[in-house]
Every structure is written in structure tokens, then in C-alpha cells.
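Dear Dr. K.,

Following up on our conversation at the group meeting, I've run the structure prediction for PRC-barrel domain-containing protein from Lederbergia lenta. I'm pasting the input sequence below exactly as I used it, so you can double-check it against your construct before we proceed with anything downstream. Let me know if the numbering doesn't match what you have in your notebook.
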Amino acid sequence: MRTFSLLKGMPVYGEEGNMLGEVCDICIRDDGKVSDILLQRKGLIGKKFRLPIDQIFSFGENAIMISDQGDLPTYKEDESEFTMHHAQPIIKKNILSNDGEQLGLLDDVYFLEEVGTIVGYELTDGFFSDIAQGKRVIRTPNPPQIGKDAMVVSVNKLRGGKTNDEVSELPKQGPR
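The predicted C-alpha cells came back this morning:
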């Protein structure tokens, strides 16, 4: 399981050892799956390319390896998908439960690399709250409904009796 923030900036190599670019974003379909990783190639123009998740051979600790480095398609916005930062961004989007409770703002996503399924959403309540209380991670049984102004998630009550307490809080981040 990975978070987008751990992938961002990670180099992508072909099996021959040629660096193809660095991860700059992910494409998320409305069914809650990561379909592609966006690569930024070095250069003046800095074009972005789509890397389908099924072309990835290995998600390593320091790099992503792909088995076939044929021509990667150039990234074009698609109205049926969302990204973290580029077209239809979801980062810092308001997250609501299907009961209308505001859970926080989206800060990151957790997904299974091999299949691209998003399994958790990391939420923030702001810088000072994150330091004092830590960030929260919620899991949802169904993909969220992503609207223009907010994402609506259905959450199960598991631990602690709170709807947003399915996954324990992340450790508080101290000064670095």
C-alpha cells in the first residue's frame, strides 16, 4: 500500500535502466481506482505523460520500474477522471460523510499499487490541528461521490464508535 505523497517525485525507469521521468500526479477514475500515473519529463517544455498502472512492473522503495517503455501517451485532461493536483484536483477538497458530517479536507490517498484501488483517504483539519491531534485516515466501502465542491463518502463505524475512526490516527509529525 502506498500514498500519493510517497510516490510524488519518484523516478520511473524502463527495464533497460533509462529514466523516463518522475511521478507528478495520479489519475483517479470515478469508480475510486487509480488508472494512470502522470510522469513529468525533464526539459524546458516539461510535458506530462500517462503511465497506465498495469504497465508498472515494480513499485520499489526508491524507483518505479516498467517492463515496456513503448511510447507513453501524452497527458490530456479527461472529464471522467480526477487528479490530485492537475485537472479536476481533489487535494484539499472538503470531505463529507453521507450523513452530512464534515470530516476534514483531503490531504492524501492510500492505494494498492498492483491494482490501483484506493483503500483510504488521509484527512487534515489544518496545520495546528494536525500537530496537536494528528491526521486521520478513513476507509470507505464504496467509491466516493466526487462533486465540484466536496467529496461524499460512506463510512462504517468500526473502532471507537466514531464514523471517522476506522483506521487509527497517524503519528503526530514533529518538527523536522
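Two things stood out to me. Residues 56 and 66 are 4 Å apart (CA to CA). Residues 127-133 form the longest helix (7 residues).

Best regards,
J.T.
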